[in-house]
Design a protein that fits this description.
four-stranded antiparallel sheet; about 375 residues; 2 helices; mainly beta; elongated
Length: about 375
């Protein structure tokens, strides 16, 4: 007697192309990233499915939600043969999930995500009112849905425009401008920095070092040599210590390369509402009085972190929770994303080529109109 073993085999289309298992109902159960067509039904599991990412643009659903996940982020065509997204122009990445930067920043900048592009990346982008943007929280950080998707150029020093293709020209005061600077006392741009050791008192930071960073109108970034925090524990010697500290801060700024700050005045005072040292803070007032720094300037940034081995400038840091900043518009407002405030607006104007010439964006040199000369066309040679 011969016994036969009976088996039941499902008969799936194309045997699921080797990319799935065949169920008893003759329907393929495809492996991950396999399916068929735009509908991505199982079918015979012969097509690749491409990576998904948050869609740049999609149709809101019934609840009004949008930017859901989409294949190739809705900015590319899926190659069903190899499972790779073929991104449209201006997009790149495995799932076309990020933008490209125009002209690769022309070799004069880096391509950065919008969350890393702080306000005022270059002088021509600067606007202090950006601090009020709803797209930022109080720390000045961008938190919208495209923070790790949209990218732009962060230009190198002396370069600007959206693709960093243009050389920046010097800024200067228009010598014929009809403004307050011609009729009133000279009023320079002043910034105030408040260094507050919180509740630990001045004794906790005496002898420690910090630095200041300054960004010029040509987008050049310079950081000072280490500045020593004064010993203010003895009330009887505070005046002398503050005077020395004022001079130290001023000299540190004046010693920045290329005379980027050709002159400034610094006044340091102890302020606060309490009688105890723990309740007080140091107020550093910097007045930009040099010809090269007339008009509004970028905010000074306090480098109060520890920068030790392999770091420059080498500083111990102040260990401050924050270098407190009080808004120009309201003394009770605090913006932790900047370290200085505008305590006095400058009445001096500041224009590209002094508004008396045209910038040659290939060379970065001003072509002054007739009757004007100087690096920024700031000097009048004849009376017209």
């Amino acid at each position: 007697m011969v016994a036969f073993a009976a088996t039941v085999n499902a008969n799936c289309d194309n045997s699921c192309s080797g990319h799935g298992s065949c169920n008893m109902d003759d329907v393929c159960s495809c492996y991950d990233n396999w399916g068929v067509g735009l509908s991505m039904d199982s079918g015979d599991c012969s097509d690749r499915i491409c990576p998904y990412e948050i869609a740049w643009v999609d149709t809101p659903n019934g609840q009004g939600k949008f930017h859901r996940y989409a294949e190739c982020a809705g900015r590319g065509i899926c190659n069903r043969g190899n499972g790779l997204c073929e991104c449209f122009e201006g997009y790149e990445g495995e799932a076309c999930h990020r933008t490209t930067c125009p002209n690769l920043c022309s070799g004069h900048g880096t391509c950065e995500y919008i969350e890393d592009l702080v306000y005022g990346a270059v002088w021509t982008d600067y606007d202090p009112d950006d601090l009020k943007s709803d797209a930022m929280n109080f720390n000045g950080m961008y938190n919208w849905w495209d923070r790790t998707k949209t990218r732009g150029c962060k230009c190198d020093a002396q370069y600007a425009d959206v693709d960093c293709s243009k050389r920046l020209c010097p800024y200067g005061t228009d010598v014929l401008a009809d403004d307050e600077a011609l009729t009133n006392d000279q009023q320079y741009h002043k910034q105030q920095i408040n260094l507050n050791p919180e509740n630990r008192g001045f004794d906790s930071v005496k002898g420690k070092t910090f630095a200041l960073t300054f960004v010029s109108k040509l987008n050049e970034t310079f950081t000072t040599v280490p500045i020593v925090f004064p010993d203010l524990t003895n009330a009887g010697t505070q005046s002398a210590e503050l005077a020395d500290f004022s001079n130290d801060v001023r000299l540190a700024l004046l010693r920045l390369p290329n005379q980027i700050i050709d002159d400034c005045q610094v006044k340091v005072t102890v302020s606060g509402t309490g009688t105890n040292a723990e309740d007080n803070y140091i107020k550093v007032l910097v007045s930009f009085s040099g010809e090269a720094v007339r008009g509004p300037q970028h905010w000074l940034v306090v480098e109060d972190y520890e920068c030790s081995a392999g770091c420059t400038p080498r500083i111990t840091g102040l260990g401050l929770e924050t270098a407190k900043v009080f808004s120009f518009y309201s003394p009770d407002s605090v913006f932790n994303n900047i370290d200085a405030i505008e305590s006095q607006r400058s009445v001096f104007n500041s224009y590209e080529c002094g508004r008396r010439g045209k910038c040659d964006y290939n060379s970065g040199l001003c072509q002054c109109f007739e009757g004007y000369t100087g690096e920024s066309c700031q000097m009048l040679t004849t009376l017209v």
